[in-house]
Specification:
Layout lengths: L17 H31 L1 H5 L5 H33 L1 H20 L4 H4 L2 H29 L7 H9 L1 H29 L1 H5 L4 H11 L4 H9 L6 H8 L1 H31 L5 H29 L1 H23 L4 H19 L2 H6 L7 H18 L1 H12 L3 H34 L1
Helix pairs in contact: 1-3, 1-4, 1-6, 1-7, 1-8, 1-10, 1-13, 3-4, 3-6, 3-18, 3-19, 4-6, 4-10, 6-7, 6-18, 7-14, 8-14, 13-14, 13-16, 13-18, 13-19, 13-20, 14-15, 14-16, 15-16, 15-20
């Protein structure tokens, strides 16, 4: 496979001082971190307390499944957020959509922290929980494209992968923050108080994201690529219509290439948290500590992998990560099933290497698949469709597969199947690019 990006590279932008580029990239990374923190506090609470608080009429397993189903609602909403954010972001700019997404996420997360339980208000509690999770999903679907494009469209030539990885690092940073806060609250309150009220604290901290939204609104300028595209646009059409008419296959292949990454990630941070505590009998704090260490471990790997992709191409680095995830799917669960926390950590950390290698260049890779006029819409849709197919249902699928098959190898097979889809999708993206290049040369 070629080492080059699959299609249209993002332009280096207007003449922007390097310091401004770095400040904007830092702002984009900060928005990604706080947005993912607020998204992840729900995933931890879904594994630990939501089953008993909001679905107490179910059995323990059914309660966890219902809790994870509420978790998955956020992923179902993310493509809708991608569509809304893409339409607005390709029409009115990256910055305002990013600000709106931050405000929506902050409001929804804070409201979850104030939400009464099933015992207090009955069926209204799980209904409100699902609706607020829906808002979270829409906000994340809107946010990712804005943050990714803010960083990559301000990046200097030849550094787009590195700048984009700063946004991608928002995922492990957000997870570190979410798990760190939960770990501290759990340690400080004890099991009984944590279940009663301590779990609310991480959600209530979400109110501070509104401050960041205001700072972005006041201090960040629109991206050079969008300003150029807006100046050159003859008439304002629908970016979504253009994407569905001319780039539908690219969106679907982008989604297919990424689903294995997001599925593996959410199995590691949510599915295994439930499995290790409920089935293997490991202490909640120990498993949370491993997940926290995994995210810290990923942080230095991501800019390294992204910088390598700037030199040798996104596809080579991305494909290496996919192959690694496929090969490690079976050893991962063999180590988890030992019930030894250290061996489980080894399995998760090795998986984290391949996740980082694949995820680091992904923002730049998806940005380079589309021209500036439809980039927000196209990149967001590809990413968010993968989040539904892979991440949203991964913890639910893991619980269901374990219940039906009675072995964790069924989960390994699930990840391998997604990995094979990813390899096929990458191959078709490269083949399509070559066909377009050949047609252009002949024309």
């Amino acid at each position: 496979m070629s080492a080059d990006p699959p299609t249209t590279p993002a332009s280096p932008g207007l003449d922007v001082p390097l310091r401004t580029r770095r400040v904007v990239a830092g702002a984009a990374a900060a928005t990604a971190t706080v947005e993912w923190y607020e998204f992840f506090v729900f995933s931890v609470a879904a594994a630990l307390v939501f089953g008993s608080l909001f679905f107490p009429e179910f059995s323990p397993v059914a309660g966890v499944l219902a809790s994870f189903a509420a978790f998955a609602v956020g992923f179902l909403a993310r493509p809708l957020g991608g569509v809304i954010g893409g339409q607005l972001g390709d029409t009115y700019g990256r910055k305002p959509v990013l600000v709106w997404a931050l405000a929506g996420m902050g409001a929804a997360t804070t409201a979850i922290g104030l939400l009464p339980s099933y015992e207090a208000i009955g069926i209204a509690a799980p209904i409100a929980l699902v609706l607020l999770r829906l808002v979270q999903g829409i906000a994340v679907g809107m946010q990712w494209g804005g943050a990714a494009l803010l960083a990559t469209e301000y990046a200097p030539e030849g550094r787009r992968g590195l700048y984009g990885s700063l946004v991608q690092m928002g995922v492990p940073l957000g997870l570190v923050a979410a798990y760190g806060v939960y770990f501290a609250v759990s340690f400080a309150t004890g099991d009984e108080s944590f279940a009663a009220w301590g779990w609310r604290i991480p959600f209530l901290l979400g109110v501070f994201v509104l401050v960041l939204a205001w700072l972005i609104h006041r201090n960040v300028e629109e991206t050079p690529d969008f300003r150029r595209a807006a100046a050159e646009r003859q008439e304002r059409g629908s970016p979504l219509r253009d994407v569905l008419r001319s780039h539908k296959a690219t969106v679907l292949l982008a989604a297919g290439s990424f689903a294995v990454n997001t599925a593996t990630f959410y199995i590691l941070i949510t599915g295994i948290l439930d499995y290790a505590t409920r089935e293997l009998g490991l202490a909640r704090e120990a498993v949370l500590a491993v997940a926290l260490g995994l995210s810290l471990f990923q942080l230095p790997l991501m800019p390294i992998a992204a910088s390598v992709s700037d030199r040798i191409g996104r596809i080579r680095v991305y494909t290496f990560g996919i192959v690694g995830l496929c090969l490690w799917a079976v050893p991962l669960f063999l180590l988890v099933d030992t019930g030894d926390i250290l061996l489980m950590a080894v399995g998760m950390f090795v998986a984290g290497v391949f996740l980082s290698v694949m995820y680091a260049p992904q923002a730049a890779l998806f940005a380079e698949l589309f021209s500036a006029e439809v980039r927000y819409t196209g990149a967001s849709l590809g990413y968010q469709i993968a989040s539904v197919v892979g991440g949203g249902f991964a913890p639910f699928a893991m619980v269901a597969l374990l219940s039906v098959a009675g072995t964790s190898m069924a989960v390994s097979a699930y990840l391998i199947a997604l990995g094979l889809v990813a390899l096929l999708s990458v191959g078709l993206l490269v083949r399509g690019r070559r066909a377009r290049e050949k047609a252009g040369a002949e024309g």
